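Just wondering, can you check both lines?
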Amino acid sequence: MKNQRYQRGFFHELFRMDERVVLMTGGHGELAHAMAATLADLGCDLVLASRKQDKCEELAANLRASFGRKVTALRCDISKEEEVVAAVAETVARHGRLDVLVNNAGTSSWGLPEDLPLRAWQKVIDVNLTGTFLACREAARIMMERGGGSIVNVASVGAFLSYRPSEGQIVPYTTSKAAIVHLTRDLAAQWAGKRIRVNALAPGQVESGMTYTLDDATRRQVVESILIGRIGRPLEVAAVLATLASDAGSFITGQTYVVDGGQMLG
C-alpha cells in the first residue's frame, strides 16, 4: 500500500481486534480453548455455543478470568435451524454486534460404508455441513447490515485424504469436511461484494478431541505419516485463525489453510 506507514508496532496492530464480537460454535474442548483464548488475547469478546452449555460456560469463565473480556455461553444444537437463528440473535442482543463467526462444531461416525446406517450418515451431514451453512447464513445476514465481517469454517485435512479401512472408517466425516471446503469457496464468491470474507482451516491430527481416542499403534501410524514427526498443538491452528479473522488477513477469502505438519505431502 503506497501510503502504508511502517513504524514500530504497525504489524502488531494488524492483528488487534479490540471490541470485535466473535460467535464460535463447538465452543468447548482443547481446540476451541486455544482459538477462543487467542481471539480474547487480541481483544475480542466472545459467545461460545454448543449443545453442552455447561462446558461452554466453564471455558467462558476461564476466559473472563484470564483476559478480562466479555464471554457468553449459549446452548445451540447447530443441526437445528431454530437454535442457530436464536444463537445469532442472542449474540447480537447481548453484545450489540457480530464481527466474526468461527464454525468449530463437528461430529463423526465410525464404520465401514457398506454397513453404515443412514441415521449415522445423516447426523454427521446435519452437524458438519448443514450446521455450518446455517451458521454462515445467519451470521452473514448480520454482517451485511454492519458492512462486512469474517467467517472461518473448520474443515479437516481429511477433506483432502481418502483412507483405507485400516486407517479410518469415517466416510461421512471426510465427505462433510470436503463439502465445507467447497462451501467456503462458494460463499466467499457470493459475499465478497458484501465485504464478508469466508475462509477455512483444515487441521491435521491435533492434540484434542478424536486424537485422544487413538490407540497406541494407530497413533504411531499417524505420527509416521506426518512430515514434522509429531501430533500438532491446538495453538498452532489458532495462530492461523488469528490471521484469517483479523485485518492481517484482509486480502484473503475463499481459501482453506491446511495445518497438518506436512501430512498431506507424506
About this structure: The radius of gyration is 18 Å. Residues 39 and 68 are 12 Å apart (CA to CA).
